[in-house]
Structure formats: structure tokens, C-alpha cells
Amino acid sequence: MAWKDIINYRDWINTIKGEKNNPNSIFNKYDMRSNFFYNVYLGVTLPQEDNVLPDNIKRLRVVEALAPVHRYLDDQLGFAEYIVPEFNQVYDDENKPTLTYVIVYRFQFKKINLRFIIKNIIYLIILYFIITKVPWENVYTWILNLIQMI
Questions:
Q1: What pairing do the DSSP bridges indicate for beta strands 33-34 and 40-45?
Q2: pLDDT at position 112
Q3: pTM score, whole prediction
Q4: Of 73, 75, 93, 126, which one has the greatest count of Cβ atoms within 10 A?
Q5: What CA–CA distance (Å, rounded) separates 59 from 49?
Q6: Nearest CA to 59 among 33, 89, 31, 84?
Q7: What does the pLDDT look like over 11-49, one tens digit per residue?
Q8: Pairing of strands 33-34, 97-107
Q9: Are 30 and 41 in contact (CB under 8 A)?
């Protein structure tokens, strides 16, 4: 399963690179960007008349505006189960919320996580000590003596 995560992440990177280089792609149509880790982000600004609406309705409007982007990422690119959206509202200089939201789509690994990494590092450390600290000549001699006794 961890290899599948790595393979899918490489596919994600190659797909994003291809979409960025295609001037006619939906990626460029919606002015999407990506960072060093290939987290995809874009900004959505609501119309000024939505300023009087409650915050939950504003967030709903943002989700409605992102429906074509979600269809594009899910259906056309095929990464529905591996990307997670994050919604961030932008604040102005006076620390007041604006009508602009930054949406970040992060690639989420299914199997690779902190527990998986720590567990495998421990296995590698144990394997290293077994290889370097066990006197293999003595083990070999012991096995040969055991076989001769039988």
C-alpha cells in the first residue's frame, strides 16, 4: 500500500506538471498554482453583495463556486481519494475578514504517515545492528557443529 501511495504521488506530480504546461487546461483557466510539494491552490473572491451574508452561507457560496474545480480534479484527473481541500479566508490589514478565500488541495497519503515512518526506521536500526554486531562467523560455526551432532 505504501508503494501505491508513492506511485500515486508521482502520478500527481506528473499530472500537475502537464496541466501547468498546457495553456488550454482547466488548471490554467482557473488560475491555479502549485508549490514545491505540488499542493495546488487558487483564490476565490465572492461578489461584494455577499458581504452581508452570514459566514456559513459565504462558505457555501465558495463551495458552489468550486464545483467545476472539484469535478476537474476528481473526474478528469482522477485524484478524488487522494486530495484534501483546505479553505482559508484572507484577512485585511486591520485583521478583518475579506470576501477572498484561498483553497489549497493537498495530496494525502493513505498508508504513509508518521507511525509508518517511525516503525520502518526502527526496523532498519534493528536490521543494522543485527548485520553489524552479530558475530556471523560464530553463528556459522555453531550451525555447522549443530548439524554434525545430528
A1: antiparallel
A2: 81
A3: 0.74
A4: 73
A5: 14
A6: 89
A7: 999 999 999 999 998 899 989 999 998 999 999 999 998
A8: unpaired
A9: no
